[in-house]
Amino acid sequence: MQDRHKLPYGADLLHHPRWNKSTAFTEAEREAFGLIGLLPEGIDTEELQLQRVHLQLNQKTTDLEKYIFLSSLQDNDETLFYKALMSAPAQFMPLVYTPTVGEACPKFGMILRRPKGLYVSFKRRGRVRDVLKNWPVKDVRFIVVTDGERILGLGDLGANGMGIPIGKLALYTACAGVPPQLTLPVTLDVGTNNESLLRDPFYLGLRQQRVRGAAYDDFVDEFVAAVQDAYSDCCIQFEDFANAQAVALLARYRDRICCFNDDIQGTAAVALAGILAALRIVQGKLHDQTFLFLGAGSAGIGIANLLSQSMAREGLPIEDARRRCWLVNSKGLVHSQRDDLTDSQRPFAHDHTPVKSFLAAVEALRPSAIIGVSTVPKAFGKDVIETMARINHRPIIFALSNPTSCSECTAAEAYQWSQGRAIFASGSPFAPLQFEGKTFVPGQGNNVYVFPAMGMAIYATQARRVTDEMFIEAARSVADQVTQENLDVGLIYPPQSSILATSLRVAENVARMIFDRGLAGVDRPADIAAFIQAKAYRPEYRPLL
Length: 545
Ligand code: NAD
What we know:
The chain has helices at about 10-15, 25-30, 45-60, 65-75, 80-85, 90-95, 100-105, 110, 130-135, 165-175, 195-200, 215-230, 245-255, 260-280, 300-315, 320, 360-365, 380-390, 410-415, 450-460, 470-480, 485-490, 500-515, 530-535, and strands spanning about 120, 140-145, 185-190, 235-240, 260, 290-295, 325-330, 330-335, 370, 395-400, 425, 435, 440, 445. By secondary structure, the protein is an alpha/beta fold. It has three domains: about 5-85, Hemocyanin, N-terminal domain; about 100-255, Malic enzyme, N-terminal domain (Rossmann fold, 3-Layer(aba) Sandwich); about 265-450, 3-Layer(aba) Sandwich (Rossmann fold), CATH 3.40.50. The strands form three sheets. The chain has a seven-stranded mixed β-sheet with strand order 8-7-6-9-10-11-14, with helices on both faces. Helix 10 (about 165-175) links the parallel strand 2 and strand 3. It is globular. The protein binds nicotinamide-adenine-dinucleotide. Nicotinamide-adenine-dinucleotide binds near residues 243, 406, 445 and 447.
């Protein structure tokens, strides 16, 4: 029961997204809180309200209009917004996050209704603590922060990148029950080098070139320190920073504060989950496989690192584990004689003669799995897939590049060219299909299987650090929840329609590891599953009387 004297009253209550129940306020609440006359007499059930949302949404003709409608609903009635999302996550996720958010971000200044989140601008450097004090909630446990430099595949969108932390945090809540009142989307506005935005009259960010170097580092340091001061139990998730900054920030902060980077660690975990589920079909051990990546960027290196660590956990020395991961980039096979490699690529530069084409690399290395993270459409041609199918009874083919137009091959191509033997997953979704009378359901290696659950585990346990081992545990837990029926149709991820149940189970297993490793900030409960369930947000109106 709430202390009614601390609650907003009258029109303030109707305009408070967290407390507003709109047409579902009861008669007694209307009397007690000065709402008589401010609402029509009809009192809706929550089910009818939900039906109205679906009806109104269906009248919108474009996904961007649906995005704007849902954003306004979040401003008006947060509970109803989450009730809608959680009623049909597979339908709503693409509207509040990718791909629609990719359409919304470039136009963010134009479609703005009511600002959400916190803009921490370089102009306010030296005063970041004061900026945080303006946020009305004093207990924040989870921040998603971007500097807007590499928004999805769209590049530098400056302050328009705010759509990403907002959308992503909505998924933390809808997919894993992280309470929305404890979350905070943040944009570090350090300018933009996007000339068309700088010329756009609707652009709302700082109109200057990006801050770089020591000034940038000091500013991020000030932000991180201010968060530590203001919210001592807060986890910071770095999101959509340019690759160099992403790697550097994770390295700088991961052993000092509770933080992670979903683009690096979440991506790696979701790919590992797909591999572990695929190995249930192949009936093979991880440390017996050979992985060949097309693409040696942040996604490829991140996945190769987590695969190696996971093999090492199975007992393989880490050097041997890394030798089971091979990378090809735009200059050919990554090998020990190359002098153009980054520090993060070096551990995967093994002794080998130069190999120019990906097909030649497949022939030479005979991988059990190929993983496309190159952004090169059609790079897995018929010759590559036929060769994989010649080498392997069940070749593992992951075409993870986004969007669909960049996919290294389509699901249909993978199945056709391997005579239905490929175990396929993609970054962007492909519809189920028939091949020679059999149904195939391609899995989508969507990070949403991992980051919301990780957020829930961290929030519930008040974890002090986020380790790679926790991501390996999350991957194992996702893979374990793929049913035999899923595997029978080639689906190597759990269905997105049951994402909340999947995530809560993942969160439970990660939380157990957090307690086991002594990283929790709260006492270990007797029943960790019940503990996680009890912490999870439910989209229900709270009685006010
Ligand atoms: P990146 O720019 O850091 O890396 C791209 C890599 O591809 C580079 O190593 C580059 O040399 C290589 N490459 C480019 N052209 C090539 C060619 N012709 N032949 C061989 N290699 C070539 O990008 P990233 O962040 O690593 O992302 C790569 C892709 O992975 C993107 O499409 C991204 O959307 C996708 N991704 C998917 C998921 C997921 O499915 N969950 C997660 C993260 C990234």
